[in-house]
Amino acid sequence: MKKSIWAAALLTLSLASCQENETETIKIGYLPITHALPALTAAALQEEGDSPRIELVKFGSWTDLSDALNTGRIDGASVLVELAMKSREIGIGLKAVALGHTDGNVVIVAPGINSASDLRGKSFAIPHRQSSHYLLLNQVLGDAGLSVDDINIVELAPPDMPYALSSEQIAGYCVAEPFGAKAVDAGIGKVLFESAELWDHSLCCVLVLNEKYIEQHHKAAHEFVEAYKEAGEYIDSHREEVFELTREQLNIDKTVYDLSLRWISFDDLAIGRAYYDDLTRRVSEAGLSDTPPTYEEFIAPDLY
Q1: Is the distance from CB of 96 to CB of 84 less than 8 angstroms?
Q2: How far is residue 46's CA from residue 39's CA, in Å, rounded to a whole number?
Q3: What are the tens digits of pLDDT across the range 35-51?
Q4: What is the rounded distance in angstroms from the CA atom of residue 173 to the CA atom of residue 180?
Q5: Which of 136, 193, 202, 270 is exposed most, by the fewest CB atoms within 10 A?
Q6: Among 109, 151, 124, 85, which Cα is nearest to 291's?
Q7: What digits encode the pLDDT tens for the residues 267-278?
Q8: Which domains, and CATH codes, for the chain?
Q9: What is the value of pTM for the model shown?
Q10: Cα–Cα distance between 99 and 36 in angstroms, integer?
């Protein structure tokens, strides 16, 4: 009897030891955009035996990524902050733990557009209504005495926007990089505004984690966010190396990559309360949400 008890105890300890030593894996969703560089770089810089093991999961659209995130098929993602806020608002357990970048969006227009007033009556593309791109467009129009009702807003997949501009289906667009840089590099579009001119420290993409994952794997979540933070700092000082590390995921020319990064910074990815409060004000005023989640409800600054 005593032998069987000791055997059971030893088996329990052995299983526990194996579980402790087993490498955690964290599944992170992304779109192939330069705004997701910290996640891509963190995965590229990880070494054998690092825990958690970062498993990148590529998506072709924000809708597909959000669906996977909201249903728990991935543990976290680099995602549009407004999409994640909306998910939190309807009860999905998501927590934002870091920014994807600071600034880094541009308003791209056709060569014949010289001011926001020239957009009246024309079509303008954004990737999703729940986005900072919509908020930036809203401000551009408001500053010119226009509203979103004065133009035709269309939602397009980011890779389709440069072609839509060159074929005159749209007069401009605002979207995550590198698609603005692609239009400029190809000579089919120009920058009307940079986001930094319109909205100081604008929030766009954020890193979110499933709340259940944080609760069940808190140590792994913290270690992943630390690796993510270090990756952000690494990008700004090793841009050439990062291009080589992430070129397979991004699949862009070096000239487009270099131009894209002129507008983006990754060195400070903490989500400040004042900047988030400014975002919630803009979201409410634009009619994107009646009750956006508060800083306490949505942000987990302790992990960063």
Answers
A1: yes
A2: 11
A3: 999 999 999 999 988 88
A4: 8
A5: 270
A6: 85
A7: 889 999 999 999
A8: 23-102+203-303 (3.40.190.10), 106-198 (3.40.190.10)
A9: 0.89
A10: 10
